[in-house]
């Protein structure tokens, strides 16, 4: 049998459930830990971000209306799809980070467990932070957490897959839609993860993934008036002040988080809504 | 001279004239429209195009659910599209149903918008399926209420069954009715005319019968103002200008929702009939959602960051 030429994957963006190239046509080079060539993912522009925001805004409306149970099931489904492709992700992580396949597989399994952990929270949030408030008067007074809308996230550079899951899962589980900028150094697992999302019943546009330059795009994330919240965990410290200033115009909720799973990551991108209702007739 | 001296009002003269028209190269028209759509208009040229497009918008509400309140709100927006920025020009016109004309006119005058004309859709809009007596009364009502632009629909049934003279006579009658009081825009409803040849024929019938503007669509039928259709109509207008030295306007209506779409239309105009037509008196865009997108693009140019739809009004 003759030597066949391997068919390499073109790493593109993931916007509205489709895999477009960047409108700018730009790409950049991603190398493995030894400096060898791995791939040319898209170098997203601010216009790709703009288009993604429009789509995310529409998608958020129906996603937020889905029942908490349903959202949890879909996140669980994402975990199932990821589990089935563990080997592919392990080899990508291993090439990028220079760790053994066994170590990389551990990160994949941790990522699956992380998704399941966040999936479980969807129908427990209102019990955790919602309340019937004691008020003096013939009224019920409820407080319930609601999703914010469109949230941006800049994923961390540390763990290319786990850090990415940490960026998206807590945002979408509550009914937000997310536009996430994947790790600049190691975006390949994130883009392969788009294929997992595409086959897991997550409505198109709820999770949109960009790859590209953090310093170029982070200010546009921050200043965009139709993005309600922003996770800047992956933004370097010297850039954070500028990002926060740019985000002040529309009082954007800007947070960064430590490693690890926490319900605080979910609640940071929710708002508490309080309603009054008369008691009795 | 009546009918520009090209026809004399009889069916035989109309048919003779229409036979002289060349056919439309469908592939060529689509390819040219697609090629012109790739033009990239940026920075200061884009800002200029946005303001021009705003001044060309016929801000439209044609719903069964239109209320006097909604029409008045739209009038406010027509005069001053962005309430936070007085440098934004007023739109080209307000376009409403017949019974809303008086309300719109009165409100516009009371808020310092007497420079904004009111256009009324007429002749049994949108289908055009009514007797001539009803169509005339419909138009007369609009004129009496103060409409200075009449958007009439042609009888597509008559056109498609080959009765060109019926179509011609209807337009000519409404033309006479409008007299000097109102501009006449003739809606071809290109989405129902099937071929580009038909669009070209209908354009010429409308122009010969006295239209001031030819308009693509009612907005109730899809497809509407696609770039190739607008191109074909602009070419008809160009040819008519060469023939008679009269400038006929074009109104693209329906399906133009984004700034990009609007700028594509402006490029078509500039490249087909020339920059003289880049004026609200010769080119209009019938739209409702488009204006918000134009305003948001304007804000982006002004502020340097992307705005949110929450900062423009919901119509």
Automatic annotation (TrEMBL), chain A:
UniProt cross-references to InterPro entries, sorted A to Z: Ald_DH/histidinol_DH (IPR016161), Ald_DH_N (IPR016162), Aldehyde_DH_dom (IPR015590)
Pfam family of the protein (one): Aldedh
Domain Aldehyde dehydrogenase intervals: 23-273
GO MF annotation: an example: oxidoreductase activity
Protein name as catalogued: Unannotated protein
Organism: freshwater metagenome
Lineage per the UniProt record: unclassified sequences, metagenomes, ecological metagenomes
TrEMBL record, chain B:
Gene Ontology molecular function, alphabetical: deoxyribose-phosphate aldolase activity
Record has Nucleus as a keyword: no
GO aspect biological process, one term: deoxyribonucleotide catabolic process
Keyword vocabulary terms for this entry: Lyase, Schiff base
SMART domains linked to this entry: DeoC (SM01133)
NCBIfam families: deoC
Organism: freshwater metagenome
This protein's name: deoxyribose-phosphate aldolase
């Amino acid at each position: 049998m003759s030597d066949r030429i391997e068919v390499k994957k073109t790493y593109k963006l993931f916007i509205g459930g489709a895999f477009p190239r960047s409108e700018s046509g730009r790409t950049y080079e991603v190398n493995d830990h030894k400096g060898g060539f791995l791939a040319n993912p898209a170098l997203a522009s601010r216009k790709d971000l703009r288009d993604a925001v429009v789509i995310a805004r529409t998608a958020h409306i129906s996603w937020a209306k889905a029942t908490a149970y349903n959202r949890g099931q879909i996140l669980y489904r994402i975990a199932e799809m990821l589990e089935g492709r563990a080997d592919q992700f392990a080899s990508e992580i291993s090439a990028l980070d220079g760790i053994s396949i066994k170590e990389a597989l551990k990160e994949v399994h941790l990522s699956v467990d992380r998704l399941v952990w966040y999936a479980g929270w969807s129908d427990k949030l209102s019990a955790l932070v919602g309340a019937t408030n004691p008020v003096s008067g013939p009224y019920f007074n409820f407080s319930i957490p609601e999703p914010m809308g469109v949230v941006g996230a800049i994923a961390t550079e540390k763990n290319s897959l786990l850090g990415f899951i940490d960026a998206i899962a807590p945002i979408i589980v509550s009914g937000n839609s997310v536009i996430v900028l994947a790790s600049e150094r190691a975006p390949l697992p994130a883009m392969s993860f788009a294929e997992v999302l595409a086959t897991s019943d997550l409505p198109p546009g709820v999770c949109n993934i960009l790859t590209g330059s953090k310093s170029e795009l982070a200010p546009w994330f921050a200043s965009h008036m139709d993005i309600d919240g922003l996770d800047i965990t992956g933004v370097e410290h010297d850039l954070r002040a500028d990002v926060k200033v740019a985000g002040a115009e529309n009082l954007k909720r800007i947070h960064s988080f430590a490693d690890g799973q926490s319900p605080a990551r979910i609640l940071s991108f929710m708002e508490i809504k309080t309603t009054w209702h008369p008691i009795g007739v | 001279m009546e009918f520009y001296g090209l026809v004399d009002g009889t069916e035989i003269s109309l048919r003779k004239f229409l036979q002289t028209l060349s056919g439309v190269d469908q592939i060529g028209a689509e390819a040219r429209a697609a090629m012109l759509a790739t033009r990239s208009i940026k920075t200061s040229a884009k800002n200029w195009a946005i303001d021009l497009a705003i001044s060309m918008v016929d801000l439209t509400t044609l719903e069964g659910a239109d209320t006097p309140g909604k029409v008045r709100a739209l009038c406010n927006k027509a005069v001053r599209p962005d309430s936070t920025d007085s440098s934004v020009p007023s739109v080209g016109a307000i376009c409403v149903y017949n019974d809303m004309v008086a309300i719109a006119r009165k409100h516009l005058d009371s808020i310092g918008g007497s420079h904004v004309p009111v256009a009324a859709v007429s002749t049994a809009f949108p289908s055009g399926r009514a007797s001539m007596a009803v169509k005339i009364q419909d138009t007369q009502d609009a004129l009496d209420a103060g409409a200075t632009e009449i958007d009439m629909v042609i009888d597509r049934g008559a056109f498609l069954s080959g009765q060109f003279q019926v179509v011609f006579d209807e337009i000519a009658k409404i033309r006479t009715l409008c007299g000097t009081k109102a501009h006449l825009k003739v809606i071809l409803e290109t989405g129902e005319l099937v071929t580009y040849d038909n669009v070209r024929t209908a354009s010429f019938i409308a122009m010969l019968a006295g239209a001031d503007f030819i308009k693509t669509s009612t907005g109730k039928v899809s497809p509407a103002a696609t770039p190739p259709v607008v191109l074909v109509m602009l070419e008809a207008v160009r040819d008519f200008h060469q023939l008679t030295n009269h400038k006929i306007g074009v109104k693209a209506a329906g399906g133009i929702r984004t700034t990009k779409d609007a700028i594509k239309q402006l490029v078509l105009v500039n490249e087909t009939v020339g920059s003289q037509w880049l004026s609200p008196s010769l080119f209009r865009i019938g739209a409702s959602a488009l204006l918000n997108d134009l305003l948001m693009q304007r804000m982006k140019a002004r502020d340097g960051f992307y705005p949110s739809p929450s900062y423009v009004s919901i119509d």
